[in-house]
């Protein structure tokens, strides 16, 4: 299985896939930093050995929408080609120039030497951590069991960010934590709206119409309900990262 190395550069995500000891970059991350508008067009001219598609695994620490099934990745050669196409990457003082220097002078040499690259990160401030907690708290009200919903969201963050405790989150992981929660926000809110519709149907039937909660009504509710998947094994997922 490929390993994922997550870090940020000037608050932008840069994710590297370790494939058999060779670093492959998520093409979208590189193009975003280099201000290349269309990733697909940018990598189309790369040689086949400079690009690949990676099937997304639930255990990957990527912070992507669950509907994303595969991603474009590029190796060092492909990375250099995209950098050379960027004029700003050659202009001192630009974000793109700093990115080029950082990747070629620091990140890649360190990965070759040690097999990994770790950014020494400061612990998130109390205000930054509270921002995450506030977002989790707000989303939890989309569900009847607010406590369970909060725990599931914290488990999701711990697994995706490789944390033992949410309080251990670093300052440079805060943007990714928000991105993870933002990705599930529309789905949580959609479920909250759906749940309120179910409640309104039950209120109208049981209270306003005075009908008893019979197997017939239960069957009607089940028809407009949804199948609930099994709870993920967060401990097992954490071991895969």
UniProtKB/TrEMBL annotation:
Domain of life: Bacteria
Residues of the Bro-N domain: 1-115
One of the Pfam families matching this protein, by short name: Bro-N
Protein name: Uncharacterized phage-encoded protein
């Amino acid at each position: 299985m490929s390993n994922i190395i997550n870090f940020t550069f000037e608050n932008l995500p840069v994710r590297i896939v370790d494939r058999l000891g060779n670093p492959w970059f998520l093409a979208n991350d590189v193009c975003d930093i280099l201000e290349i508008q269309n990733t697909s067009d940018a990598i189309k001219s790369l040689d086949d050995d400079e690009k690949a598609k990676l099937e997304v695994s639930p255990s990957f620490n990527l912070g992507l929408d669950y509907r994303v099934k595969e991603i474009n990745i590029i190796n060092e050669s492909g990375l250099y080609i995209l950098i050379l196409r960027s004029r700003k990457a050659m202009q001192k003082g630009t974000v793109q120039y700093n990115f080029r220097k950082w990747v070629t002078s620091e990140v890649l040499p360190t990965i070759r030497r040690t097999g990994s690259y770790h950014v020494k990160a400061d612990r998130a401030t109390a205000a930054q951590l509270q921002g995450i907690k506030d977002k989790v708290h707000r989303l939890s009200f989309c569900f009847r069991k607010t406590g369970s919903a909060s725990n599931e969201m914290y488990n999701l963050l711990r697994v995706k960010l490789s944390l033992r405790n949410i309080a251990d989150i670093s300052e440079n992981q805060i943007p990714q934590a928000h991105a993870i929660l933002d990705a599930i926000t529309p789905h949580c809110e959609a479920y909250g709206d759906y749940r309120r519709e179910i409640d309104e149907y039950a209120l109208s039937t049981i209270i306003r119409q005075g009908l008893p909660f019979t197997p017939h009504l239960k069957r009607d509710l089940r028809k407009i309900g949804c199948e609930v998947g099994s709870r993920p094994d967060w401990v097992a997922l954490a071991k895969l990262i």
